[in-house]
Design a protein that fits this description.
Blueprint (H helix, E strand, L loop, with lengths): L13 H25 L3 H12 L24 E5 L11 E5 L7 E2 L4 E2 L4 H4 L70 E2 L2 E2 L42 E3 L2 E3 L3 E5 L6 E7 L5 E13 L2 E15 L5 E7 L2 E7 L5 E10 L2 E9 L5 E5 L2 E2 L4 E10 L2 E9 L1 E3 L4 E3 L9 E7 L5 E9 L3 E9 L3 E9 L3 E3 L2 E3 L6 E8 L5 E7 L4 E9 L5 E8 L1 E3 L5 E3 L2 E2 L2 E2 L2 E7 L5 E7 L8 E9 L3 E9 L2 E2 L4 E2 L5 E9 L4 E10 L5 E10 L5 E12 L4 E3 L5 E6 L3
Antiparallel strand pairs: 1-2, 3-4, 5-6, 7-8, 9-48, 10-11, 11-12, 12-13, 14-15, 15-16, 16-17, 18-21, 19-20, 20-23, 21-22, 23-24, 24-27, 25-26, 26-29, 27-28, 29-30, 31-32, 32-37, 33-34, 35-36, 37-38, 39-40, 40-43, 41-42, 43-44, 45-46, 46-47, 46-48
Helix pairs in contact: 1-2
């Protein structure tokens, strides 16, 4: 039987060689036949035969030109191959090639190779027939699947491990172990099986893996083999990545008219575009264009990463918060006037060019009034928080705050999808208190909520918190998937608290900033008292950290180093992978830990940084006035974007310097935004 792979062993001149060789053979046979027939004399015949046998056609080397010349091609066990010059070839260039591996039997009738005798009979040095290494798996030569029958640590069901020798423990070339020290779900690149390896180029850092975003930090964050590279200009928006650090010029912008013009919130997208929301009165100028309102109007304003004006929108309702989700969808939330004494909450989403994508307008029932004061937008959806009185339907049915005079206000946290569909809501009940200034921070699994209450008690999960001062602080933590309250606490004394902002870390801790005056107990075994000057108690900024059960972890107050008339306020907070950043303003001299900031009666904008454990890291201060009577700055928000781009904003009053020179507000308040240079 001719083996199916016969043609693969014939050299390139096969068909031409066959034709030529056959012609030569037929010619020689014809000559010999004629000579034999014509010779009658034995002596002559011998002479003629010898002469005829010596005849050779021109060009004939005596070597084979095809396998057919070497033997019977119908055989299976022995393959006759024409391979001139090959080791073991005869004078014609023919080689006999066994069909089966050495040690295996061959069945010519069945056209099949058998297994070696030791597979069934065993042999010296083998633990068992067909399984020399005794690992329970038969050798491949015996029809099994043990890729290394001389190594008991290699067989198909053996777990693959990450080892420096790149050993294939499970006889599967596609596996390489599962070592993942940093638990980012990517296997260490040091784990290999031949040329197949894991993909985590730094298994000691959970932020480094193939799906990570590249950052300007001198590291290969996305494991593509290149340091500090990214597409689309998102690595250092408005700047350059130099030596593992973003370098960008700082800038500041102000806007306003003759009325009260505020900047209530800000956000930054992946390209470093800045979005600010707020309100304006009468006439205001944005990017060289005037806008007017008969009373109070709202706006969404955008600046590019380099500080150039992009666009603005006059909104329906006054937005008090703005956020950007991972797809760069812009979401705003606030309230609008629907009639005398009526406030209606809203949420609206926009694309990067300012086009409206969707809008949610919760419906008001009897006595219903509501305001959204804080917002978060993540891949999981949109979270809006605020307060309400009367009856309001946020999408899942009517929610009612207690009746009373003045009307008690309850807090609400409402969740919607990224497309604006209602998901769920959670109400924190007032049992007589006015709840206000609700702030949130959210990630994929939790929502941290902080706010103020005064004039009566509140109730959280069956626990009643009594109002002791002019305004007390409450903190709660919600399960994002269910909206259930998982932790709660209140902090109070005889003073008054104003909440500035909230941040969370990845370890279940919540951080709250703001200001207080009078006496306040944040926990930790001590009460804090703000300085009493000639004008009474002066406000002090604070930072409070609570753990996953809402118990006190640590707190700091921002105290003056000299005069009791000096004051401070922590207006905003944000968190990154290593700690928290707080922004605010102060009048006088203060020491955050890095030396005296401010002096005498100067007004100063500050940024102070702490570890998650409360240790001081660094601070920056910008003198905004040489005398507090000249003007003042109020911080409303701070954001850290791509490449460490840090932006803060709020309102100015009077004559101030935000870093680029003196500016004077056009009205009683103007909005501002500052990008810090790097």
């Amino acid at each position: 039987m001719v083996p199916p792979d016969l043609d693969s062993h014939l050299h390139s001149g096969y068909r031409r060689a066959v034709t030529c060789k056959m012609i030569r053979l037929f010619a020689v046979l014809l000559v010999l036949t004629v000579s034999a027939c014509d010779s009658t004399d034995p002596e002559d015949a011998g002479t003629d035969a010898g002469s005829d046998a010596a005849v050779m056609l021109d060009g004939d080397t005596g070597l084979c030109a095809m396998d057919l010349e070497c033997g019977d091609q119908r055989l299976f066990c022995v393959r006759h191959r024409c391979m001139p010059g090959a080791p073991g070839a005869n004078a014609m260039g023919c080689v006999e090639v066994p069909a089966c591996p050495v040690g295996q039997s061959c069945d010519e009738d069945a056209d099949a190779c058998g297994v070696p005798e030791w597979c069934t009979a065993g042999m010296d040095g083998c633990s068992a027939p067909g399984d020399c290494d005794g690992d329970g798996a038969e050798a491949i030569e015996c029809g099994g699947n043990d890729c290394a029958d001389d190594d008991a640590g290699r067989y198909p069901t053996n777990p693959e491990v990450c080892d420096a020798a790149n050993v294939d423990e499970d006889c599967d070339p596609t596996t390489f172990g599962d070592t993942d020290v940093d638990m980012d779900t990517y296997v260490d690149a040091a784990c290999c099986n031949g040329s197949t390896c894991g993909t985590d180029c730094n298994d000691d850092n959970g932020d480094v893996h193939p799906d990570a975003s590249e950052a300007c930090n001198g590291q290969d964050m996305d494991c593509d083999g290149t340091v500090d590279n990214a597409t689309g200009g998102s690595l250092c928006p408005g700047g350059l990545c130099v030596g593992g650090r973003c370098r960008a010029d700082g800038w500041d912008r102000t806007w306003g008219g003759t009325g009260v013009d505020t900047a209530n919130g800000l956000a930054v997208d992946s390209m470093g575009n800045v979005y600010v929301v707020g309100q304006f009165q009468r006439i205001v100028t944005f990017g060289g264009m005037d806008e007017s309102a008969s009373g109070t109007g709202g706006y969404l304003l955008s600046w590019a990463a380099d500080g150039s004006y992009r666009w603005h929108i006059v909104t329906t309702g006054v937005p008090l918060a703005v956020a950007v989700d991972p797809s760069d969808q812009i979401v705003i939330a606030g309230s609008g006037f629907t009639g005398p004494g009526s406030l209606a909450p809203f949420i609206e989403a926009f694309d990067a060019a300012g086009g409206s994508a969707w809008r949610v307008d919760p419906s008001l029932g009897s006595g219903g009034r509501a305001v959204f004061t804080s917002l978060s937008a993540t891949a999981e959806g949109v979270v809006a928080a605020g307060h309400f009185s009367g009856a309001v339907d946020f999408g899942g049915g009517t929610r009612s705050a207690p009746a009373g005079s003045p009307s008690p206000r309850s807090a609400v946290v409402a969740q919607y999808t990224t497309g604006g569909s209602y998901a769920l809501d959670t109400v924190i009940d007032s049992t007589g208190a006015q709840m206000r200034n609700i702030r949130i921070a959210a990630d994929a699994s939790v929502i941290a909520v902080a706010g103020e209450f005064e004039g009566g008690p509140i109730e959280i999960e069956g626990t009643t918190y009594v109002n002791e001062g002019d305004g007390d602080l409450f903190v709660t933590r919600l399960n994002r998937a269910t909206g259930a309250v998982v932790a709660h606490a209140a902090f109070s004394e005889a003073g008054d608290v104003t909440v500035g902002g909230v941040a969370i870390d990845g370890a279940s801790n919540t951080y709250v900033v703001g200001e207080f005056d009078g006496v306040m107990s944040f926990g930790g075994g001590r009460a804090e008292t703000s300085p009493r000057g000639s004008l009474g108690f002066r406000p002090l900024g604070f930072v409070l950290a609570v753990d996953g059960t809402a118990d006190h972890s640590w707190h700091e107050t921002i105290r003056p180093t000299a005069s009791a008339n000096h004051r401070s306020s922590a207006g905003a907070i944000t968190a990154d992978a290593t700690g928290i950043l707080v922004s605010g303003s102060l009048v006088g001299a203060f020491d955050f830990g890095g030396g005296i900031r401010g002096a005498s009666d100067e007004s100063t904008v500050f940024l102070s940084s702490y570890t998650f454990a409360g240790a001081y890291r660094d601070d920056q201060a910008i003198r905004s006035t040489t005398a507090s009577s000249e003007g003042d700055v109020q911080i409303e928000a701070i954001v850290v974007g791509a490449g460490g781009m840090t932006v803060y904003g709020g309102m100015i009053e009077g004559r101030v310097d935000l870093g680029s020179g003196r500016r004077t507000s056009a009205g009683s308040l103007d909005g501002f935004v500052v990008r810090i240079g790097s």
